[in-house]
Design brief:
Layout (H helix, E strand, L loop, with lengths): L18 H16 L6 E2 L10 E2 L1 H10 L18 H5 L23 H4 L25 H13 L11 H15 L3 H15 L10 H10 L5 E5 L46 E5 L3 H6 L4 H4 L4 H4 L6 E2 L6 H9 L1 H4 L5 E7 L15 E7 L4 H4 L6 E6 L9 H4 L1 H12 L2 E5 L4 E5 L1 E7 L2 H8 L19 E3 L4 E3 L49 H6 L5 H17 L4 E2 H21 L7 H5 L3 H8 L8 H11 L8 H18 L39 H12 L12
Parallel strand pairs: 6-11
Antiparallel strand pairs: 1-2, 3-4, 4-8, 5-14, 6-7, 7-8, 9-10, 12-13
Helix pairs in contact: 1-2, 6-24, 19-20, 20-22
Length: 709
C-alpha cells in the first residue's frame, strides 16, 4: 500500500492551520484507516506520543493543536511496513530505535510538549533507511563495551521480575540522593533487600561500592586532583608526585599545626589540603551520539533550523556564522559540538550565614534544539572548584584540565560512533563563549570590572566620573551613542552642561564579551511605579522595561535589535536628565551594549545566568555531608547523570529527578521567595494584566494562541 507524502510534518507551528498541513493530516488518517484501523486510532501528537487510542476527529484536533512528533516519520503504529533493506540491516544499538511509544521514559522527552512541539526542533527519524543498511559499521571496541554493559544490565532483577537490574539500582540511588541517605544506611537497605526480601540469586548489588562501579563502568566518573591550598598550582602531570607547592612551598597534605605531623585517616591514608573534582568531558560527549534518541538531535542546527533574519538559537547568531566561515573544516561536520562555559559560585549549606563558596564549571552543548538546549538534564558538570573561598583570579589554574581536553578535541578530535547512522566519525568540539555574572567576568577574562575602565566594550574609551562624597564611580555621557545630528547632543542645560560632539567608541574586534542583568525585573517596573512618579520619570522607566522585555524575547528579528540599540540610547539619555550621577553604575551603562551582544550571540536566554543559578540549586540538594560538600555533590551528580543516560535505553526506568511538581506550569518554575515588601492596593485591571502576562509567557499555552476548539 502506498504511503502518503510526509512533507507536511515539517511545517512550522504557525502553519498548522494551513491547507497543506490539514490535507496532510487527513491523508495520514485515511492511510491509517485503510490499514485496518477503522475504530480508535493511536494518536501520534506531541502530547499523546502514540500512547492513547482516540476517535479520528480527536486525533485530528490533537495533530493541529499540538503537532505531530517529528521523530515519528516511520508510521509503524498506523500500518506502514518496513522495507526489506531495513529488516536486513545490522542495528548495533541496544535499546531499539522503535520504542517511540515509550517516550515518557526518555529523560530528554519527559516533557513532550516542549521537546517536539516546536517544529524548529524537527529531528531526523531514528529509523534512517537511507543512512543504514550496507553502509553501517561495527562500533569500535569502547562503544561495544558500553553497549555490552548496558545489555547485561537489562537482565531482570530476579527470574520473573518486571524490572531490570540497572533500573532497580538507579532508582535506589535516586532515593539515596533525594533522601540524603548516608552510605551506611544505603548499605543496610541493600543488605535487607538482598537477604530478606528478594528471592535467592537476585542480581542486586551488595554494597554502595558495587553500585558506584556500575556508574564508573559506563564511563561516568570523576577524577580527584590535589591542589595547593593557596590556589598556586595543581598536582598533576609532571607535578603529580610533588609533596609541596613549587610556588609557595606549602605542603600538599594537611598537617597538625602543633606537632607538624601529617594528618591521616583511620585507614592510614593522607588527606590533601584541597581537591579539585574533575569530570572528564570526552566520554560524556561521545555518549550523546551513542543513543539514537539524542544522536539525530545533535545535527538539528544544520538539518532542520530555519535560516532567516530571526534569532531563535545561537546557531542564528553572528558569532556562530562567523565561526563557521572562518573554520570551514570544523563546520563541514555538523555533528561537531559548539559549547558554552558557565561559571559561578554558590553557598552549599542551608544555613546562609556559613561562609563557604563552591564554584562549579558547567558546559552547555548548543547543538541541541531550542526547547531542550537549556534543560538542566543536558548540562555537563565539568569540575567543582573547592571552597571555602572563591578562586578569584586563580580560576585559570583550576581550568587547566578542561583546557587541555578541549584543546585535544579541537585539534585532533576523537573517534565516535553515531547510533543514528551506525557509522563512525571524528568528533571535535569548540568553546564559543563563557557565561557568568559581571563580577565573575573579571576572573575569567582578566578585565577589571571596577574602576574607571570597567566597561569591556568601551575599553579605554570608557567615560566615568568619581563621586567624592559617595565614593562611587558613575558612567554617563550616553549622548555620544546618538546620531550626530540628534537634538539631545546640543541640550547642554538638561545634561552635564556641555555640548556632546564625541562619537561612540569603536568596538574591538575579536572580543567575546558577555553581560548579565539580573536585578531589573522588566515587567514589575511599570506596575510598581504607576501613579507614584512624575510622568517623565514613569515614561523613561517604562521605556527601559519595554527594552528588556523585547530583548529577552525567545526569538527576535535582527532589524528589531537595530531599533533596540537606538531605543536604549534614547532611554539612557532621558534617564540622565532625571536621575543623579549616582544612579549610573556600570550595570546601567552596560545595557547600551546589550542589543549588539544579542546580535553576536543570539537570544539572551541561551547565555544568561538564570538556568545556571537554578542548576546550582539542584547541586545544593546533593549535600548530605557538611564536612565534605564537594564530595557529596560529585556523587549526587553522577547518580542523576547516570539516570539521564540510562533512561534513554531502558524502557522500565522513569524517575522524576526534578523536585518541581509535574502539574506545575513552566512559568512558575523560576519563582523566588520575595521579601515582605511594601503593601500595595490592587487597582482595576491589575488582575487582567497579570493574567495576560502569564498567558503570554507560559509555554504550555502556546499551542492555543491561534486555535479555538
Amino acid at each position: 500500500m502506498h504511503t502518503p507524502d510526509k512533507t507536511w510534518m515539517n511545517l512550522a507551528r504557525q502553519h498548522r492551520d494551513s491547507q497543506i498541513y490539514i490535507q496532510g493530516v487527513n491523508s495520514f488518517l485515511d492511510f491509517s484507516e485503510r490499514s485496518g484501523r477503522t475504530s480508535n486510532i493511536s494518536c501520534p501528537c506531541v502530547k499523546c506520543g502514540n500512547r492513547s487510542y482516540l476517535d479520528r476527529d480527536i486525533v485530528k484536533s490533537h495533530l493541529i493543536v499540538y503537532g505531530i512528533r517529528q521523530s515519528y516519520t516511520f508510521w509503524y503504529c498506523h500500518g506502514e511496513k518496513r522495507s526489506r533493506s531495513y529488516e536486513d540491516c545490522d542495528n548495533n544499538e541496544l535499546e531499539g530505535d522503535n520504542d517511540e511509544v515509550e517516550a515518557d521514559n526518555d529523560e530528554l522527552e519527559d516533557d513532550n510538549d516542549e521537546l517536539e512541539g516546536d517544529n524548529d526542533e524537527d529531528s531526523d527519524n531514528d529509523v534512517e533507511d537511507s543512512n543504514r543498511g550496507n553502509d553501517s559499521e561495527e562500533p569500535h571496541e569502547e562503544a561495544k563495551a558500553f553497549f555490552s554493559l548496558l545489555n547485561d544490565s537489562k537482565e531482570p532483577l530476579y527470574q520473573g521480575s518486571r524490572i531490570s537490574k540497572s533500573s532497580t539500582l538507579l532508582k535506589l540511588l535516586h532515593l539515596k540522593n533525594a533522601g540524603q541517605w548516608t552510605n551506611t544506611s544505603f548499605n543496610m537497605l541493600l543488605k535487607l533487600l538482598k537477604d530478606e526480601i528478594l528471592p535467592e540469586n537476585s542480581n542486586l548489588q551488595d554494597s554502595y561500592y558495587e553500585c558506584k562501579k556500575f556508574i564508573r563502568d559506563i564511563g561516568l566518573s570523576f577524577e580527584n586532583i590535589d591542589a595547593c591550598k593557596n590556589n598556586c598550582m595543581l598536582f598533576r602531570k609532571e607535578h603529580k608526585d610533588l609533596q609541596s607547592c613549587k610556588i609557595c612551598g606549602l605542603s600538599r597534605l594537611k598537617v597538625d599545626n602543633s606537632s607538624g605531623a601529617t594528618i591521616k585517616k583511620v585507614n592510614g591514608k593522607t588527606i590533601p589540603n584541597k581537591v579539585l573534582r574533575y569530570f572528564p568531558l570526552t566520554q560524556r560527549l561521545q555518549r550523546l551520539y551513542m543513543c539514537s534518541k539524542t544522536a539525530h538531535l545533535m545535527r538539528w542546527h544544520k538539518d532542520t533550523r530555519v535560516d532567516d533574519d530571526i534569532l531563535r538559537h545561537p546557531a542564528d547568531s553572528m558569532t556562530w556564522k562567523s565561526f563557521d566561515e572562518n573554520y570551514k573544516d570544523f563546520s563541514l561536520e555538523p555533528r561537531n559540538l559548539r559549547l558554552g562555559l558557565a561559571n559561578d559560585g554558590f553557598q552549599p549549606f542551608a544555613n546562609g550565614k556559613t561562609s563557604y563558596s563552591i564554584w562549579p564549571v558547567i558546559l552547555i552543548p548548543y547543538n541541541l534544539p531550542p526547547t531542550i538546549c537549556m534543560q538542566s538534564s543536558n548540562f555537563i558538570l565539568s569540575m567543582l572548584i573547592p571552597g571555602p573561598d572563591s578562586p578569584g583570579d586563580a580560576i585559570d589554574i583550576y581550568l587547566q584540565p578542561l583546557i587541555d581536553e578541549l584543546s585535544e578535541l579541537w585539534k585532533t578530535g576523537i573517534k565516535t560512533f553515531d547510533a543514528s547512522t551506525s557509522r563512525h566519525f571524528t568528533l571535535r568540539a569548540a568553546l564559543l563563549w563563557t557565561i557568568n555574572d559581571f563580577p565573575a567576568y573579571a576572573n575569567l577574562s582578566g578585565w577589571s570590572t571596577k574602576g574607571k575602565l570597567a566597561c569591556p566594550y568601551c575599553n579605554k574609551n570608557t567615560i566615568s566620573m568619581r563621586l567624592i562624597n559617595g565614593r562611587k564611580e558613575c558612567y554617563m555621557c550616553h549622548r555620544r551613542f546618538l546620531s550626530e545630528n540628534h537634538k539631545f547632543r546640543k541640550e547642554k542645560d538638561l545634561f552635564d552642561g556641555t555640548i556632546e560632539i564625541r562619537k561612540a567608541p569603536e568596538l574591538l574586534s575579536g572580543k567575546d564579551i558577555l553581560h548579565q542583568v539580573q536585578d531589573l525585573k522588566e515587567y514589575l517596573i511599570p506596575l510598581a511605579t504607576r501613579g507614584l512618579l512624575p510622568n517623565e520619570v514613569y515614561e523613561a522607566l517604562v521605556d527601559l522595561s519595554k527594552f528588556f522585555s523585547m530583548l529577552c524575547s525567545k526569538s527576535i528579528k535582527k532589524e528589531d535589535l537595530e531599533k533596540l540599540q537606538i531605543d536604549i540610547t534614547l532611554t539612557l539619555c532621558k534617564l540622565e536628565k532625571i536621575f543623579p550621577p549616582s544612579f549610573f553604575d556600570i550595570m546601567v551603562h552596560l545595557s547600551i551594549h546589550f542589543p549588539l551582544e544579542a546580535l553576536l550571540g543570539g537570544p539572551v536566554q541561551y547565555r544568561w545566568m538564570y538556568p545556571i543559578e537554578q542548576y546550582m540549586g539542584i547541586l545544593k540538594t546533593y549535600v548530605r555531608n557538611k564536612k565534605h560538600p564537594e564530595a557529596s555533590i560529585s556523587e549526587g551528580y553522577l547518580v542523576n547523570e547516570s539516570i539521564s543516560l540510562c533512561s534513554r535505553y531502558f524502557e522500565d526506568l522513569s524517575v522524576q529527578i526534578s523536585d518541581q511538581p509535574e502539574t506545575s506550569l513552566s512559568i512558575f518554575s523560576t519563582i523566588e521567595e520575595l521579601s515582605t515588601g511594601t503593601p500595595y492596593i490592587y487597582e482595576d485591571g491589575d488582575r487582567e494584566r497579570a493574567h495576560v502576562y502569564i498567558l503570554k509567557n507560559c509555554e504550555e499555552a502556546e499551542p492555543f494562541y491561534k486555535y479555538e476548539y
